């Protein structure tokens, strides 16, 4: 059998669907490269992106992307090869990824917060041959971590570094535009996005040029974008939300300008909003709360901000109602997923809809099912499982036969795992979710994955990881641990997790030691039941 990591990522809609999505004008046959070329030709001098260091016009972004493509190709990378991209919010993000698109290479987006264990997982799963990263950011040296992973994963050969390259390949020295660019099929996979790990490790989500470009092109008008829009990228650019809802790509598609924020802190961003006359940005709920706390005291003029999008986790109505009075802009709730479906409240919706709902789908072609536990449709207003299918929702993960069988129905609906209610007009209200993952400030964390790491600790006999409602984070990670012999310190368990090379957001916020886990007369209870009981008991004690 061939190594699954080596097979080319694919995303296949049955022909009748593909034909319909084309005929109805959703899929236009554009590619990332063709749309960037079109914008650079239409308005070469217009500013496309800035960060604290660089300000590049559309023509400059294109020229740098072409040079990057030349550099990648000169390394011997071939169309279809995967390349890990681990970059913080810097202007270089754009030429790094557009260069990959132009060369027919497939970016695999890794978060700056990811550490060795995750990088290794993505390298193996994708079969990546190279990684593009930055010399250092926020005190962390990315090339050293990439080198550690290269030593573990034979396919990973090239480390390409923007900034001080050390002994690695210098991204900044890529200067030669190739003689010819490969032909790119718009229906081919453009990149691999990572899923929030619902069960176990993160899966890879193959998105095509056709489907993804449709999702952000159609988001533009819904989010009020025009060539005058200035989008502040405050969340990590690798996330689907700031990347495409409408995010950086939707803004460039509309001919607007992207401002990269080094971090999402209120003071950092307020300063940028004033300096760059930012008109729209997107945040997760905890950050929106912090911004609302900081706004009345700030000395910066944030009056240019027209739209604040909030999504990634439930934004409670009481907080949502404060956005307009406190920040002076329109709130747009965004309920989306890297697998596809994105819902928005519309800018012109009545305040009640904006505050109370998580919006409605982008597309008339988005099909939404809300089903009870038996799989029968529920009435409007009744909570049920959300399933969806449409012109930008995937039909399968990359090389995950078992997960695909669980996550997709035979007729191609994606089981989102979310429990929602449908309201009048097709608006959705998110009620919760069926699965066991933790939504910590918008980052989705698999309980199983964290448990696996805890169990590797010699003093841990058993572990169960549970989400606990948290006023600020939405949910926090609580690890219940049955010690083996002497009880380790909570802080020591957390330090152990970090040493295993895990993203900081997966380290439990709280560690609770218990003498044993409850078992029933019939034997061990299921993990799901155990987690639910631990959460319940814990909440009772807290109350
Ligand atoms: C976004 O994408 P992911 O892939 O990180 O997470 C998707 C999950 C959803 O299935 C849902 O459980 C939760 O995040 N979620 C929300 C929400 N937005 C996302 N839950 C309640 N209210 C919301 N507004 O998080 C994402 C992707 C594109 C746009 C926006 C968010």
Description:
The longest helix has 17 residues, at 58-74. The protein is 32% helix and 25% strand. α2 packs antiparallel against α3, α3 crosses α4 and α7 crosses α9. It has 543 residues and is of the alpha/beta class. The protein has two domains: 4-422, Rossmann fold (3-Layer(aba) Sandwich); 437-542, 2-Layer Sandwich (GMP Synthetase, Chain A, domain 3), CATH 3.30.300.30. Bound molecules: 5'-O-[(R)-(benzoyloxy)(hydroxy)phosphoryl]adenosine. 5'-O-[(R)-(benzoyloxy)(hydroxy)phosphoryl]adenosine binds at residues 196, 240-241, 245, 311-314, 333-338, 342, 358, 416, 418, 430, 433, 439, 442, 444. GO terms for molecular function: acid-thiol ligase activity; nucleotidyltransferase activity.
- CATH evolutionary superfamily of the largest domain: ANL, N-terminal domain
**SS summary, helix count:** 18
Low-confidence stretches: none
Which ions and ligands are bound to the chains?
Answer: 5'-O-[(R)-(benzoyloxy)(hydroxy)phosphoryl]adenosine
Précis, in short:
32% of the residues lie in helices and 25% in strands. It has 543 residues and is α/β, with parallel strands linked by helices.
Topology of helices and strands:
Layout: H1 15-23, H2 32-42, E1 47-50, E2 55-57, H3 58-74, E3 82-86, H4 93-102, E4 106-109, H5 116-126, E5 130-134, E6 136-137, E7 140-141, H6 142-152, E8 158-162, E9 169-170, E10 189-194, E11 204-208, H7 209-222, E12 230-233, H8 240-244, H9 247-253, E13 257-260, H10 266-276, E14 280-283, H11 285-294, E15 307-311, H12 317-320, H13 323-327, E16 330-337, E17 340-344, H14 351-356, E18 360-361, E19 367-371, E20 384-389, H15 401-407, E21 414-422, E22 428-433, E23 438-440, E24 443-445, H16 447-455, E25 460-470, E26 474-483, H17 490-499, E27 510-513, E28 519-520, E29 523-524, H18 527-542
Parallel strand pairs: 1-13, 3-4, 3-5, 5-8, 8-9, 12-13, 12-14, 14-15, 15-16, 26-27
Antiparallel strand pairs: 1-2, 6-7, 10-11, 16-17, 17-18, 19-20, 20-21, 21-22, 23-24, 25-26, 28-29
Helix pairs in contact: 2-3, 3-4, 5-6, 7-9
